[in-house]
Design goal:
By secondary structure, the chain is α/β, with parallel strands linked by helices. 52% of the residues lie in helices and 11% in strands. It folds into three domains: 10-296, 3-Layer(aba) Sandwich (Rossmann fold), CATH 3.40.50.720; 302-541, Rossmann fold, CATH 3.40.50.300; 551-667, no CATH class. The strands form five sheets. Strands 2-1-3-4-7-11 form a six-stranded parallel β-sheet, sandwiched between helices. The protein has a five-stranded parallel β-sheet with strand order 14-15-13-16-17. Residues 1-6 and 407-412 have low confidence and may be disordered.
Length: 668
């Protein structure tokens, strides 16, 4: 009973570089297998773990140093219980391994390199530290310590590693040319990330005799095969080659990974993986990694249909949604104009209908369907602006019906829909004109077959997931048109009467059941009703599914931010200047008021002082001055000054005569 309980205890697994692409998915896989997984930190004790896994798939010196330190700790310790150490490396440690051929002539074939040939490997110049780490781990085997090196091919799937194929997937998703380094003739060994994690998980549970494992799939794909498949299956099919000389100078890890030219095979992987995720190689199973790329990166297309009467603002709303979510806005006229430029069978038929003054609706719908099936709409999504207009049109767009490029004789799945298509064609062309058109088409098709022109392939298009209905009363619509300029009315409706005719036609179509919105509601799609003139709130639709702002968007945001900051600073400076001027004016006014107050106070103080001095003056004049004057006169009489003035008058008499007057003047 005790042995059974001991066997039930899950092994403790310590994973270094758990934050990397491989490390993160590896932790998930180990956890699903029932192992006790712990992401390694600086304080982690390697001796406490049963299994230690270190990833040095990249050339990060910190990861290599951590792996080296961990294996040295285990190799120096006296281990009492069995330990397993697994190093995850990359095929760049094989990048310069010499190619071996079977035969000497032109028919010589290339020999595959196996796990047992690991001693022949030669590393890429920038991955010699990884090779040294591999050797250290491989040689560290001792009692109670099993060491393994898992050398992984170029990983793909589960959202894509940014160091390997993510750039190719991203370019294709944006409908841009996919980069191909060099001629593309080099063989690149690949493995799905799930298969790599499954092999490592199995190795952690059941060690093998072969301690060096080449983790590669069975496919023999060249770089051109991979780039071409990604470009065609996810994008527009365009490839942008980069010369090998230029690729060698790039520091991009993807360029280094894709520079390898190795034919590798593994004698061990078959025993480690019970059920492969992708056992036929990357190109043969590309549909799965493409689906995973969309799911893991939240890149599912967002498809919307904006519906509303004329002048309700559907064009403004659809344009705003397309800008907000980085989608493609589709209108009937724009799609037809684009289809006319292709020069294929559909283009010629559209041109023929245009020359007659009316394009048959099945051709319009076929052009729209082809656009909806284009890579840009399948990847990012779209906003349909006021089209389709009827239930039949919606059914044609989103239900599988024969394409104009299908073989002759193919019938629609829906009998009623087929009758409607035939009726539309008969209304568009008379019998004689139809015969002439068929003859012309046959001649054009024969010419295309000789030139090898292939019509675009069509599949099931994405039905809108968001139905936005703009509600407006006739009074609101009339008011909107009334506020438009004459030029705007002519451009949109030709005249006010033209607007009235379009509005009446639109109302009549909506009253006929089932209508266009009924088709979408039959697909379990609830309409989002928005009053005319109000913006559509993003929370009604949800978050965007894209890579976020583009460099152009970021530059525009920075420009707007800088302009707003500059405007803010200018307004602040103007406000500060105005405040300073107002403060100066206020201070000046206050200064004048204070000066006036001070002057008034001084005046009042002088008057008060004068009033207060009157009694004293009166007392001096009435009482003191006469007595003092008399005393001085008497003094002068006692000792008179006997001098003559210049006029011969006695000086003492002059002094006595004026003394009283002078004293009185001094007092007053």
């Amino acid at each position: 009973m005790g042995d059974e309980e001991a066997e039930a205890v899950p092994a403790k697994v310590l994973v270094y570089a758990s934050g990397t692409f491989i490390g993160g998915h590896l932790c998930t896989a180990l956890g699903k297998a029932g192992l006790e997984v712990t992401p390694a930190t600086v304080e982690s004790d390697v001796l406490a773990a049963d299994v230690v896994i270190c990833s040095v798939y990249g050339k990060d010196p910190a990861e290599i140093e951590a792996a080296t330190k961990a294996i040295e700790t285990l190799s120096k310790a006296e281990l009492e219980t069995p330990k397993t150490f697994i190093l995850v490396s990359s095929v760049l440690t094989w990048a310069r391994t010499p190619v071996e051929m079977d035969g000497d002539d032109e028919d010589a074939t290339r020999l595959a390199i196996s796990d047992v040939d690991f001693k022949k490997r030669r590393a890429h110049p920038e991955y010699k530290a990884n090779l040294s780490c591999e050797r250290t781990v491989y040689k560290a085997k001792k009692k109670n310590l099993e060491t393994f090196v898992v050398c992984a091919g170029l990983v793909y799937g589960l959202g894509e590693s940014t160091d390997v194929f993510h750039g190719l997937f991203k370019s294709a998703w944006h409908c841009e040319p996919v980069t191909m380094y060099g001629s593309g003739s080099n063989l690149i060994p690949t493995i799905h990330t799930s298969d790599l994690c499954a092999a490592i998980t199995k190795l952690a549970q059941e060690p093998t005799e072969q301690r060096y494992v080449l983790a590669v799939g069975a496919g023999e794909d060249t770089l051109h095969d991979v780039a071409n498949a990604i470009a065609k299956d996810l994008g527009t099919g365009d490839i942008a080659p980069v010369a090998a000389e230029e690729a060698m100078l790039l520091s991009d890890p993807a360029a280094q990974y894709m520079s390898v030219d190795l034919k590798l095979e593994s004698a061990v992987m078959g025993g480690l993986i019970e059920e492969w995720t992708c056992d036929e190689g990357m190109v043969a199973s590309l549909a799965k990694p493409i689906a995973e790329y969309r799911d893991f990166n939240n890149l599912q297309p967002i498809c919307m249909f904006v519906h509303g009467p004329p002048a309700a603002g559907s064009a403004t709303a659809s344009a705003a949604l397309a800008k907000e979510y980085k989608l493609h806005r589709l209108t009937r006229d724009a799609v037809i104009a684009e289809a006319l430029e292709t020069g294929d069978k559909l283009s010629r038929q559209l041109k023929r209908g245009q020359d007659k003054g009316k394009i048959p609706m099945p051709l319009v719908l076929q052009a729209m369907r082809r656009k909806l099936n284009s890579p840009m709409c399948c990847n990012q999504g779209y906003v349909l602006d006021s089209f389709p207009e009827t239930h039949q049109q919606a059914t044609f767009l989103f239900k599988k019906v024969p394409s104009i490029d299908d073989e002759e004789g193919a019938e629609p799945d829906d009998e009623e829909l087929g009758e409607w298509i035939d009726e539309e064609k008969e209304n568009a062309d008379g019998e004689e004109e139809a015969a002439e058109a068929d003859a012309a088409e046959e001649a054009e098709e024969e010419a295309e077959e000789e030139e090898g022109v292939e019509p675009p392939k069509e599949g099931k298009v994405f039905t809108p997931a968001h139905l936005i209905v703009i509600d407006a009363t006739d009074e609101q619509l009339h008011a909107t048109v009334k506020d438009m300029s004459e030029a705007e009315i002519v451009e949109a409706y030709e005249s006010e009467d033209g607007f009235m005719a379009q509005l009446e036609k639109w109302r009549a179509v909506q009253e006929k059941k089932p209508c266009a919105t009924d088709y979408f509601e039959s697909q379990d799609l609830d309409p989002i009703h928005v009053p005319a003139g109000e913006p559509i709130k993003p929370q009604l639709v949800g978050e965007a599914h894209n890579y976020g702002p583009t460099p152009e968007d970021i530059a525009e945001q920075q420009r707007i931010k800088a302009a707003a900051e500059e405007q803010k600073q200018a307004e602040a400076a103007a406000a500060a200047a105005a405040a300073a001027a107002a403060e100066a004016l206020e201070n000046q006014q206050k200064q004048k008021e204070m000066e006036a107050i001070h002057a008034e106070l001084e005046k009042e103080e002088d008057e008060i002082l004068k009033l207060r001095s009157l009694p004293l003056r009166k007392y001096l004049i009435d009482s003191v001055i006469p007595t003092l004057t008399q005393g001085l006169i008497n003094t002068c009489k006692i000792r008179p000054v006997r001098t003559l003035s210049s006029h011969g008058v006695c000086q003492d008499e002059l002094t006595n005569a004026h003394l009283s007057v002078r004293m009185t003047h001094w007092i007053t």
